[in-house]
Amino acid sequence: MLYRHFLVALGALLALVPVGQAQSLDLTKAVIRTAGTLSSREERAVTMLIEEVERRSGVRWRRETANATTAPSIQIGQRTAIQPPAGSTFTESRAEGFNNGIRPGNSQVYVAGNDSRGILFGVGHLLRHLEMRRGSVTLSTSYKAATAPESKLRGHQLGYRPKTNSYDGWSVPMWEQYIRDLIVFGINAVELIPPRSDDDPDSPHFPAPPMETMIAVSKILDDYGLDVWVWYPAMDDDYSDPKTVEFALREWGEVFRKLPRVDAVLVPAGDPGHTPAPILMPFLEKQTANLRKYHPKAQMWLAPQGFQSDSIEFFFETMAKHPAWLTGITYGPQTRISLPELRKRLPADIPIRHYPDIAHSRQAQYPVPDWDYAIAVTSSREPINPRPVDQASIFHTQQKYAMGFITYSEGCNDDVNKAIWSGLGWNQKTPLIEILRDYARYYIGPDFTDDFAHGLLSLEQNWRGLVSSNPGIETTLRQFQEMERRALPSQMLNWRFQQALYRAYYDAYVRRRLLTETAAEQTAMSMLERAISGSIPSNDAMQNAETTLFSTTGDNALRTRVFQLAEALYQSIRMQLSVPLYRGESGRGNTLDTVDAPLNSRNWLRSQFNEIRKLPAEKDRVAQLSKIVNWTDPGPGGYYDDLGREGAQPHLVPGVGFKDDPQFFQTPVAFFITTGQGRSSWWDQMMALYENTLRLRYNDLDSNAKYRVRVVYGAGPLRLQTGTGVEIHGYVEKPFEVLEYDLPSGAIQNGSLTLQWNRTPGGGGPGRGCQVSEVWLVKLR
């Protein structure tokens, strides 16, 4: 709750940041003048500037080799070939940096790069600040920048494979356009994925074979002078077998041979992968030699993802010896220790690259905190997920332990998050709203700079806390509908604009459905109460309740618009928001297929009614209906917690919190299932990762009374103990069954009780742990 209040306050402060009302320089008829002889990569930057301005405004800037005209001009070159403004010097000289500005007293804009990348990023910075409208290009007369990146490595993983929600449908020109878009925000690396990974070998969306596209994208990156990384999982069965090693060396070597450029290879130990460190690391030493046959300066990096405790210790022992073949370590999802701990345990001179998951919103490295089940079960893991405040918080908490980052991405659903990481990777002090305004100005248009930027913040606020008590979701929809009314046809065809609209309509549709279906369930319970009181027969009550539960509908106008926008996104950027409609891969952003997922317990209630109807006696049927109606009632002196449900878990020990523990190593995190079966209270659970402990704490209990614990678990095996270590039950694995256990004598001390759960040592799987759905503490009479 405190975190949510902090975000609301931050949003209010962001709204106060002034946009600025500087005068503008008209560059519609500007010409490009280059200084000195440009390399092919520097020429590529000039071409990017000309083409991106034309793409957004219809204005085609021409090039001049000398001051042949008096038209406004943009001078581009390396810092050593450009004269600084009279009476001043260029103050920025670091690698990849630039000095941009406007010469006083005339209309000449200059981009003075410190090196080839400096020219590229200087052009990108200028593009972000131009105001490009149809037939018009202007620039604030106050424009000036002298800057260089703080993070040495700034990149994103872009995998051409079936598992992604969009990348697998991209042609080579689409790849180049997206790479340009990322360059504009300052990235210097892209990570590719080889043809064989933890995926099917083919996708119905592939416009070209995987190896052919990988070669083409590697060449594009080389043309712009960006680093090419390859994420290469070691998935074969047994690398202790020489035949397996020989096969892998040959297969990997063929990929390395075909790629025009490779600067580094990252091998994850898990996700996927299963090889223990004592076998994996000698294998990677051989692969490093294999890699350098074709790319002599290429680096080998290892991510200790999935290593169990014995492999982790061998890994650290090996790293203490500074193996010459290994350049650095990557910290990614499913690593059993935190990034600060990894930095502490590694030798100080071994670099760490961060590999943050920006694609997923739950069951993820950095899940959404305080997520309401209504959004979670409809949006699943991989929705369109602008999380600017969260991503900035993660960056500032974690990135100080790493030399740079390449993010983990599964498609363009996380595009806003890429911009946040790119912007903060350049300068961690950049105000968040400034990055979002650049995003809106460049990608959507200058007339939406402030509105769209704040709209993205509002979309993130849609996901804060209880949906039912968040009327801001409706406000967000109205804001985007107003932008929709103002948008030009070209903006309506813009996939980034379509994504934001989709989310605004989607969230509002889900909220309205939630309110309707919650009310229907409450009405159904009232009907069952009439049978319990004897007012109507039980069978009649169940029939009436069932009719009420299954007759609710959502807002058809909103639903129709959601489907229209899903189609638009498939056409514009190949987003596969549905499995049956767009041949998406299940679980990869297919939110259209879950937009109508039940938000109440109607399916479970129907199954219960079917069983109750089989009982011959009315009194037995009524008794079972009474259990349903009074499900959450712990009785006099008792307590009930619906774990995972925001606002309904008063006894949960909250831990450190998202701000300081974004990976939830020391903080319980909500876990969600999306089957639509069972009680809705089972769809969200509270989980402690790996072998960590989940705790509930009670005070002001009657020390002389006897109590019983009633529980429903989500996954096991789990053991329940008191806070003093007294066992209430040993390891059991009975998910979604109601289990009861009497508290042992002496469990309550001075009116207080702590209940704590753990999984078996070494259990929990990658990123999983004990999962508890409901807990009753019942006072016995």
What does this structure look like?
The structure is a single chain. The protein has 781 residues and is α/β, with parallel strands linked by helices. Strands 10-11-12-13-14-15-16-17 form an eight-stranded parallel β-barrel, surrounded by four helices. The protein has a six-stranded mixed β-sheet with strand order 3-2-4-6-5-9, with helices on one face. Strands 18, 19, 20, 22, 25 and 27 form a six-stranded antiparallel β-sheet that branches. Helix 17 (495-532) packs antiparallel against helix 18 (538-549) and helix 17 packs antiparallel against helix 19 (556-573). Mean pLDDT is 94; it is low at 1-20.
Using brief descriptors, characterize the structure shown.
alpha/beta, 18% strand, globular, eight-stranded parallel β-barrel, disordered N terminus, 781 residues, 27 strands
Topology (elements, then pairings):
Elements: H1 2-15, E1 24-26, E2 31-35, H2 40-57, E3 62-64, E4 73-78, E5 98-102, E6 108-113, H3 116-129, E7 131-133, E8 136-140, E9 144-147, E10 153-157, H4 172-184, E11 189-192, H5 210-224, E12 227-231, H6 242-258, E13 264-268, H7 277-294, E14 299-303, H8 309-319, E15 328-331, H9 339-345, E16 352-354, H10 373-379, H11 388-398, E17 404-407, H12 415-426, H13 432-444, H14 449-462, H15 472-486, H16 489-492, H17 495-532, H18 538-549, H19 556-573, H20 579-582, H21 602-612, H22 618-629, E18 639-642, E19 669-672, E20 684-689, E21 694-698, E22 707-715, E23 718-722, E24 727-732, E25 738-742, E26 753-759, E27 769-779
Parallel strand pairs: 2-3, 2-4, 4-6, 10-11, 10-17, 11-12, 12-13, 13-14, 14-15, 15-16, 16-17
Antiparallel strand pairs: 1-8, 5-6, 5-9, 7-8, 18-27, 19-20, 20-27, 21-26, 22-25, 22-27, 23-24, 23-26
Helix pairs in contact: 1-14, 2-3, 4-5, 6-7, 11-12, 12-13, 13-14, 14-15, 14-17, 15-17, 17-18, 17-19, 17-22
